[in-house]
Write a structure and sequence with these properties.
The complex is a heterodimer of chains A (443) and B (401).
Chain A (H helix, E strand, L loop, with lengths): L1 H8 L16 E12 L3 H12 L4 E4 L21 E2 L2 E2 L3 H13 L24 H14 L3 E3 L3 E8 L2 E8 L2 E12 L5 H5 L4 E3 L10 E4 L8 H13 L12 H7 L15 H22 L9 E5 L9 E3 L7 H6 L6 E4 L24 E3 L11 E3 L8 H7 L2 H21 L8 H10 L7
Parallel strand pairs in A: 1-2, 1-8, 2-5, 8-15
Antiparallel strand pairs in A: 3-4, 6-7, 7-8, 9-12, 10-11, 13-14
Helix pairs in contact in A: 2-4, 2-11, 3-4, 3-11, 11-12
Chain B lengths: L1 E10 L20 E4 L7 E9 L10 E6 L5 E14 L2 E12 L4 E6 L15 H11 L11 H4 L46 H11 L2 H12 L3 H8 L4 H11 L8 H8 L6 H10 L2 H4 L2 H11 L4 H12 L6 H10 L5 H13 L5 H8 L7 H14 L4 H13 L1
Helix pairs in contact in B: 5-6, 5-7, 6-8, 8-11, 11-13, 13-15, 14-16
The complex binds flavin-adenine dinucleotide.
The site of flavin-adenine dinucleotide (FAD) has 38 residues of chain A, from helix 2 and helix 11.
Chain lengths: 443, 401
Amino acid sequence: MGAISLGIAAPSLSKGDRLAEPYRTRRQSLSADIVVIGGGTAGTIAAIQAGRAGRKTILIEAGSQLGGTTTVGGVAFPGIFFAWGEQIIGGIGWELVQEAVAMNDDTLPNFSIPHGRQHWRHQVRLNPHIYAMLAEEKMLEAGVDIRYYETPFALRFAKNRWEIETVGKGVHATITCNQVIDCTGNALPTAMAGYDVIREEEIQPGTLMFKIDGYELESLDQDLIKQRYQEALDRGEFTREEFRGNIIGLLRSQGDNIQHIMDADSTTSESHTIANINGRKSLLRHLRFIRTLPGCEKTKLVDMQTETATRETFRIDGHYRITHEDYVTGKKFDDAVSYSYYPIDLHDAHGVIPDHLEEGVVPTIPLRALVPKNSRNFIVAGRCLSSDRLANSALRVQASCMGMGQAAAAAAVLASRKGISPLEVPYDELRELIESHGGIVPA
Amino acid sequence: MEGLFRHKKVFLQLLVAGGILLLAAAEDTGPRRFFLKPTLELPVDTVYRYLVLEEDSIPNDTLFQLRSAEGFPLAYYRKINTNVCFDGTCRMLKVQLYWNITGRYLGIELPPGEFLSKTDHEKFNLSEYARMNHLLADSLSPLADFTFEDLVPPAGDLLPEGAAAPTLGNPALGGLTADAVTSATAPAMADYVVAGAAYTTYRLWHFVYGPTRDEIQRLTQQSLSDGLLVHILASPDASDVAWGLQRAGDYLSSSGPLREAVLSRIANEDFSLASMAIDAIGPASLSSSAFQQALMRKLSGLNYSLKNKLVDKLGEAPALDPEVRAALVKSLETASGSYLSHLFALLLKQKVNDAETCLEISNLLEHENHFVASQTFQFLEKAACEDEVVQQRMNRYRNKR
Ligand SMILES: Cc1cc2nc3c(=O)[nH]c(=O)nc-3n(C[C@H](O)[C@H](O)[C@H](O)COP(=O)(O)OP(=O)(O)OC[C@H]3O[C@@H](n4cnc5c(N)ncnc54)[C@H](O)[C@@H]3O)c2cc1C
């Protein structure tokens, strides 16, 4: 009997197979000068900057590649690097963008020609896959230790050092470091560290980016299609919010930045799962519907991102909160570390009507807006910076996030060299470090 | 097909008080001209006619080219006859559309008695002509991507009986047309059309940016020379300069006024033009030591983005001038970030691996910044420097890592 049960329990191994050791979570202890959490639009730049400035840097990224919303989210059209004819965001972000453009034989927009009311003319269309690979190459070259599929679950500060506990696939690491840069976009590590974060009651919708093809827009009976869509809306098959009630808009854009997923929040695995499922469900329903329309029977889904990209979740409560008024008047802060430039761009259920800045206005970002109140050795970069909702709708764009990423990392580098907090870093030294790596600091 | 007739020395005085427009004659007494500034302001000597074979929506098939006595093209125009309709009554509109030699919109000329009109065939006033000029000059106008239907709200605004709403890309753009609908232009589009004349704006814009424009650029390109390019690069219009820089490569010798004109555009003020200027430089110019040195003098004043680009360009030189090379090696000491990487890439491309230079560079293996040290190590490894001291230093670095 014993012999028989043994026979059942032991797996039959083929030649070359190896029986794994009994499972044990791998415990690791690591140390670094700087830990960047989140390798998205801002975090990629931050980690490269920290590494190039010679600090031992670890990057923790919950996903499988770099670039975040730029690459995984499919929003591969960063903007805006030039304002009123002058470059306002340079440095590592621009370096990556330029190289990605060159490697894909794309062309940069002609920034000498003003974009007028069409600010998107100055955004740079990228191949996101090339961008992600170049970013990874540069990060490794900068000596950064990249840890994909990992996320922190506790942050503790004692004796001028952070202890971060992370979990990944089969790994539980304890990382000690001197400075933390939260680039998750959602400020979850900031909240874990015990600092205040803020969220609007109603957040901007998220978007699943995809590409459909297989129909000739010009030869479709658009009136009939609109009518059929209206009937489906009236029957409750779709909500108006999903594609702004505009089926022709969906067909014309072929899925490029058109879908709206209400309440999409990427902060936790659970909320992001819901946002992803909602995005895919909505697309599938629409795809089925489109394939019933005359002239669209052969519509194909050519491409789809693996995540619903989110516009707005939590923001930190920083030493300074950038206001809408600051933004539209281009307030120059004494501790400005980067520019930002974009129209106020708040999306709602009906879409968005951008509110352009007046000629010559270039807003700036003070270091204080990147540092949570009451924090030590802690800084953020990206869309979760401290700002009111309207200012955030413009500050969150990618070039601005890249500028912030470089500036936040430079502050963390100097802070870690001197054993102080980012806000205590001498401003002139900060400027010098950013500029020596190509970043542009407001004059 | 090309024809030619001589003009009495008419000065191409299509311009503009204050740079915007010129009303050449009093209303209804002579032709009226609404013009922007051309690249070249020289007297017109001859007018060439070209048969435009590519069919677009302009019924008249002749493209006229104005030339100066030196043979420089100065401007192009086409005669356009088109119907404008309101509430079913149509009138024939005759205009001459002008293009600059670089293909941008230049202006409109109206024969005596002719006028542009709005809803109800009401005549344009001067500010509406100015606005039309401004809108037609906008090469990035969203009118490019929109169908005529986008200009008007979906309901209620019907075209005249029997007229189909034309759409972008529809060759039937010609034919019966209407501004009847324009009183209710869709709000998002109101910024891009003259109020009450949405269709006229839309239609003229598509004439301006239609196939004629490509033909014009092709014809100017046929007449390109060093001399003409120098004029184009001196234009106050950035799009002219961009046009010239994108075509200057083939004419750029290592010396002369064109070289100076291209070099002068390598400056921080305008990234796009500076990038194009750098792109225009080819190996033939780079083979000159003097030219490399001129580029090197530019380098120190440039911002980071352009610096890297210029360093990459120097890397394309058939052989690096010794002075330039020494200066580049020296600059490694203070370089950081990607500038350092670009400098090392240039030295590798130029196969720099002599003992003296490698020895100098190997000092950086001791740099306190590990990124600088590791970039240096990688360079020395790839360059395969054989010097013994360099090898020892590399071994020390290897063991320390
Ligand atoms: C649909 C849409 C359209 C947009 N359009 C434009 C546009 O046209 N132009 C423009 O410039 N900007 C646009 N934006 C805005 C811009 O793309 C984003 O605001 C910006 O990319 C945010 O950058 P970030 O670095 O803050 O966050 P992200 O790029 O989202 O990066 C966050 C990173 O952190 C990781 N992460 C998150 N949580 C954790 C965790 N707990 N642990 C570990 N890792 C974590 C994520 O996986 C991700 O890689 C758009 C945004 C959206 C959603």
